[in-house]
Model the fold of this input.
Amino acid sequence: MKTITGNTVRYSLSNFGTKVSDYASACAAVPFTFLQEPVSRASTGEKIPNSFGLFRSDNGGCVGIHSENFGFMQPSESLATLERARALVGGKWASVASTKGGRQLAAFIQLETQITAPKRGDKVGLSIAYFDRFDGTGKARLQLLANVLACDNGMTRSDSLVTFSEKHYGAIRERFSAMEFNLAMKLQEQVEEMQSTVNALDNTPMTRSEVSAFARTLFPAIDETKVPARTENVRSAIETGFVRGTGNVGQTRWDAFNAVTEQLDWQGSFKETGFSREENRFESLVTGSASRVRSRALELLLN
Done:
C-alpha cells in the first residue's frame, strides 16, 4: 500500500524490499542460496576443526560460522513457510527483503481483511510479516502488522501471532507446520483485538492539553526545566500532528496515536551504519526503538 503526498511516495512496512506477486517471484527476489564450507585460519590456511561457514552463493559473504551438523534452510525453503501460511489465511504476496547482509529474511503478504475506525472511517490494512534468521541466532516468527491506509502509519503489535525459537534443523519442518497451524487458529482473534484497539482510540475524546501531557509522558526529560531541544521538538511535532497530521482533526486518542506514528514513521532520522538508512528505519519500526515507542504510546492511550 502506498500514499502519494505531494512529491513524496510513502511505502508501508509491507512494501519494504522488492515488490513480489507470488511465491516464485518471492524466491527470485532473494537471488542467492547458502553454501556450507570449511573455514581456515587466515594466517596459516589451516582448516579450523569442526568449523564450517555459511556463505552466500552470489557474493561469497559469510553469514555465520557453525559446526558441521548445523541445520539451515535455503531462502526458497524458508519462504515456503509464508506461502503455506498464505494458503491457510488468504491474502496476496506483497514484498520480500534480505536484511542484515543476508542474515535475515523479511517477507510479507497483504490480507484482504481490513478494519475501520468507527467514527473517522479510516481504513486500516492488515498484513502478515514473516522473519527468519538463517544463521541460527534469532527466532523465526509470523507477526500481524497494520497500517492506516490514509497515511501509512504503522500499528505494529508488540507481540507476534506465533513465535518459533528452534534454531537447528532436526524436526524444524514439523515445528514450522505447527506455527502455520497456530497462525490460522489465532489470526481472527488478533484481528478482533486490533479492531477493539482502534474502536477504543477512535471513541475516546482527547483535548490538546491532554495531548501535551501525553507527549511529555511518552518522551520524558530528566529535568523538565532543561528539556533537550530534540525532545521538545518531538513533543511539539506530536501536538501539531494531533490537529494537522495527515487525516487528523484533533478530537480523539486516534488522532494522538496517528500523530505519534507519523512522527516515528516519517519525521524520524535514521543514520547509515553498516546497513542503509532505509534498512535501519525498517528495523527500528518493526522491532527496534520506534516499535517500542509506538507500543508505549498505545499503552498510555488505552489506559
